Amino acid sequence: MRRLTILLAVPLTLTTACSRSSGAAPVSHTSGDATTATSSLGTAPHFTNWPTYHRTNDRAGRTAAVRGALHPAWAARLDGAVYGEPLLVNGTLIAATENDSVYGLNPRTGKQRWHTSLGTAQPQSQLPCGDIDPLGITGTPAYDAATRSVFVVAETVGGHHTLWALDATDGHRRWHRSNDVLPSRNRSAEQQRSALLVTAGRVITSYGGLAGDCDNYVGYVTSTATNGKGATTHYAVPTPREAGIWAPAGPVVGQNGNLYVAVGNGARTSGSWGDSDSVTELAPATLHRVAIFAPSTWQQDNASDLDLGSSSPVPVDGRIVIAGKRGVVYLLKTSLGGIGSQLATTSGCVAFAGAARVGHTVVMPCTGGIRALSVSRHSMRWKWIASGVYGSAELAGKRVFVADRDSGTLKVLSLADGHVLSTHAVGSLTHFPSEVVDGNHVFVPTLSGITAFHGS
Fold first, then answer.
1. Is-contact 241 185, C-beta < 8 A?
2. Are 93 and 154 in contact (CB under 8 A)?
3. What is the CATH number for 437?
4. Confidence class for position 339, pLDDT limits 50, 70, 90
5. Which domain holds residue 83?
6. Per residue in 298-309, is it b (16+ CB within 10 Å) or e — as a string?
7. Which residues have C-beta within 8 Å of that of residue 176, sequence separation ≥ 6?
8. How much is the average pLDDT of 119-126?
9. What whole-number distance in Å separates Cα of residue 431 and Cα of residue 390?
10. Does 6 score more than 50 pLDDT?
11. Fewer beta carbons below 10 Å: N end or C end of the chain?
12. What's the whole-number mean pLDDT along residues 318-339?
């Protein structure tokens, strides 16, 4: 993994208690806008549901156009950094923090409707390495309309990783389940960074290591029924160590209904492979491995930390596009095909986090500047680059919205050619920033909370 690092230090105060898996008792309460929250469910016609990272399970990041120019709407300071995208559920904006808190906010005003605490976040000083302090809820939550539950994974003191199901209406805790399913590994060296996913009646979570790739961990995926019943199944990368599954966009659902995950560098740099540095296809319930791809350079990639694990696969019209830290973009068949089985490659994108797609155009989160890629059945070509702009884009009408990490701004670009149309200050951003564009609003998670804008 060994991703680029940023140090986060956020003061925290938290009521502590105990859960079955972590020894910390969660607390929840409503305040301020609670009555409005209940009465407004289903009555906010200008907001659609945004239930998962980039809105849909293929992580396309495409939504309705925002009208006119952007204007500041509000800024809500929460009790910690917000690393994941917020969700929009039945007219409530839901955000999770590194202080192990989940908030329900009025998306028009930022006023708090409810707040649920899920324990005491893990101080970085008690971890073998890492770059988030404290370490609480990092991966983007996911919402299930069938059970009306929001799912989050909270890391608490002792390195416990607990999957929680919360009532989306008021934050009430419905059930929880430990996701520390690999007893032979050091759970304090594991991190739940990827976005959660709900598909086929299952909630999917995935795990990598901490920044620094320290100690005894291996990448793995879990699958649990959305009603909390039955066994949790899991897939662990069959390699001695590392091979984290940590890309912020998380697992992706392909057109065949299966999961596609990006796997990072493994410890093996010679000899037999170990399914690291790969795109791996999994069945959503059993997590049985269906197919796999790796570059023919997997040994060098593992040795030099140039793996595919830094961004998620992108489904495009019966194909898969994936880019990682080597700077090579691969075009794959959905059946993948094993080592060196790509249909085409192109260079020019060291990718981190999540891409966005409309039609055959993919906007890639490249570190030198986001880039638009045109994809056909057997080839790819670059359309434009927005130099110096880095973040995960959302596509709304003919515009691209991207929270630019290095400038601390929200930039609005032309989808046609990538030129910057406007720039808006948002504050300090996380390492892999993204945003939500919905209801003629844009919501940007920051190191201190949420900053919101609205269209004309």
1. no
2. no
3. 2.140.10.10
4. very high
5. 8-455
6. bbebbeebbbbb
7. 19, 20, 21, 162, 163, 164, 165
8. 98
9. 10
10. no
11. C
12. 98
Residue 386, amino acid: A
Q: State the total domains in the chain.
A: 1
The rounded distance, in Å, linking the Cα atoms of 309 and 446 is 24
Name the CA dihedral angle for 442, 445, 447, 449, rounded to a multiple of 10 degrees.
80
| Cis preceding-peptide flag for 134 (omega within 30 of 0) | yes
Q: What is the CA radius of gyration of the chain?
A: 20
Q: What whole-number distance in Å separates Cα of residue 206 and Cα of residue 219?
A: 7
What's the rounded Cα separation, in Å, for the pair 349 and 352?
A: 9
pLDDT(30) > 60: no
**pLDDT of 161 strictly over 60:** yes
In this structure, what DSSP letter does residue 249 have?
T
Dihedral pair phi/psi, residue 118, rounded to 5°: -115, 25
Beta carbons of 98 and 121 less than 8 angstroms apart: yes
Pairing of β 62-63 and β 394-396:
parallel
pTM beyond 0.90, yes or no: yes
Q: Read out DSSP for 81-142?
A: ---SPPEEETTEEEEE-TTSEEEEE-TTT--EEEEEE-SPBBPGGGSSS-SEESB---S--E
Is 2 contained in some domain? no
In a 13 Å sphere around the CA of 140, the CA atoms on its Cβ side amount to 37
Contact 25, 18 (CB under 8 A): yes
- Least Cα distance to 6 among 87, 124, 95, 99 occurs for 124
For strands 132-133 and 112-117, give the pairing: unpaired
Cα 304–Cα 209–Cα 124 angle in degrees, nearest 5 = 120
Q: Read off the DSSP letter of residue 67.
A: P
Kindly state whether residue 3 falls inside one of the protein's structural domains: no
Q: Does 118 have pLDDT greater than 50?
A: yes
The answer to whether the beta carbons of residues 394 and 437 sit under 8 Å apart is yes
Examine residue 285 and state whether it is found in any structural domain, yes or no.
yes
* Distance from C-alpha of 364 to C-alpha of 57, rounded to nearest angstrom: 17
Asked if residue 100 belongs to a domain, the reply is yes
Cα dihedral value 177, 182, 183, 187, nearest 10: -80
Q: How far separated are the first and last CA of the chain, in Å rounded?
A: 42
